[in-house]
Amino acid sequence: MNPLRFRSPSFLRPRTFACLSLLALAATLAAADVSTADEPTRPAADTGGPRLVILGTAQDGGLPHAGCHCERCTRARREPGFARRVASLGIVLPASQRVFLVDATPDLPAQLETLARYRPAAGERVDRSFLAGIFLTHAHIGHYLGLAQLGFEVMHTEGVPVYATPRLAAFLRDNGPWSQLVRLGEIVPKETPPASPVVLGEGVSVTSLRVPHRDEYSDTVAYVISGPRSRVLYVPDTDAWRSWERPLAEVLDGIDVALLDGTFYSGDELPGRDVSKVPHPLIRDTVELLAPRVVAGTLRVLFIHLNHSNPALVADSAARRELESKGFAVAADGQGLPL
Ligand SMILES: [Zn+2]
Ligand SMILES: [Zn+2]
Q1: Which residues pair with 246 in a beta bridge?
Q2: pLDDT at position 122, please?
Q3: Cα(first)–Cα(last) distance of the chain, in Å?
Q4: What's the 28 CA to ligand 2 centre distance in angstroms?
């Protein structure tokens, strides 16, 4: 079916405009609700500024993980509140009513529902201009497969800018099904070499930095998202900190909040594997490395991208208590952060 059939007739537009104002108000009010207990409620005047919304906190497979019957996956099937979506971030610019995504996950439809609280509907049955842009970290399944939802069969978006490294942009242009999104103008790859800031307005800019990772189809980046109130480092997926070209300590200078790869808590959850060869930084090691800054109050660290095997997924586990006792936290789906 051609999704273009769903365009609303133009005579509805003035009425739609009145509805939009109400929706804008509702969205502003809703923005105050999304912060979790971890994020204290801010004064009403503060809710209008740019902010980040953590849309997912699990590794590429989500929680529950397909085909897995471990205790955490079983619990996530039983208790929807324990389930987690795949790691992704929303950037909300309320004054211009624009929302951006960092990574397009297999959970994108549900994540757009969360983001819709911050942006009124555009008056069309299918809102093709919902997303003002997407920043991709790399081409692993949890980080870009959601782009398929922008295609002809679903949203059939109009020219959504997709910021990616030159290698990832070329991969999208040259390989189906992504090449069809480009050909139909549903997405527009924007080649963005590392360290080239993209200015979004309202005092917000996004700058990528190369990180070491398994780079089969693309290279991999992290993002620094700077706003009027806060600078946030977003690193969902990387090899261990020791393999970074630029030391993490240097990258963290001037960063207020770091959302860091917490795929694994320790080597214990990988029976039969040599911990020194685990390609991710282990939460236990990251806590040790960054404790002085966190304890001093100069840096806030939230772990994201947790694998289903990670004991820190469980709120009253020894692993969670250990990291929280040192001032670190596991990010929650839906958590808001001022930007
Ligand atoms: Zn599992
Ligand atoms: Zn990856």
Answers
A1: none
A2: 65
A3: 40
A4: 34
**Superfamily, domain 35-338:** Ribonuclease Z/Hydroxyacylglutathione hydrolase-like (3.60.15.10)
Counting ligands in written order, the one closest to the CA of 70 is 1
Closest listed ligand to the CA of 87: 2
65 Cα to the center of ligand 1, angstroms:
5
For 240, residues 6+ apart whose C-beta sits below 8 A from its C-beta are 278, 279, 280, 281, 282, 285
pLDDT at 40: 37
- Tell whether omega for the bond before 177 is within 30 degrees of 0, i.e. cis: yes
Task: Give residue-wise pLDDT tens across range 277-308.
Answer: 778 999 999 999 999 999 999 999 999 999 99
Ligand 2 centroid distance, CA of 138 (Å): 7
Beta strand pairing call for 257-261 and 231-235: parallel
At 149 the three-state DSSP class reads: helix
Starting from the CA of residue 64, give the closest ligand. 1
Helices (H), the chain: 13-31, 71-78, 108-115, 141-144, 166-174, 178-183, 248-251, 283-296, 318-325
What is the model's pTM?
0.86
**Distance from C-alpha of 33 to C-alpha of 332, rounded to nearest angstrom:** 14
The three-state secondary structure class of 245 is coil
* Domain residue extents for the chain: 35-338
pLDDT at 32: 36
Nearest ligand (C-alpha, residue 71):
1
- pLDDT per position as a tens digit, 124-169: 677 888 999 999 999 999 999 999 999 999 999 999 999 999 999 9
Residue 214 near residue 263 (C-beta atoms within 8 A): no
CA-to-CA distance for 221 and 73, rounded, in angstroms? 29
Residue ranges in the chain modelled with pLDDT below 70:
1-47, 122-124, 275-276
In this structure, which ligand is nearest to the CA of 235? 2
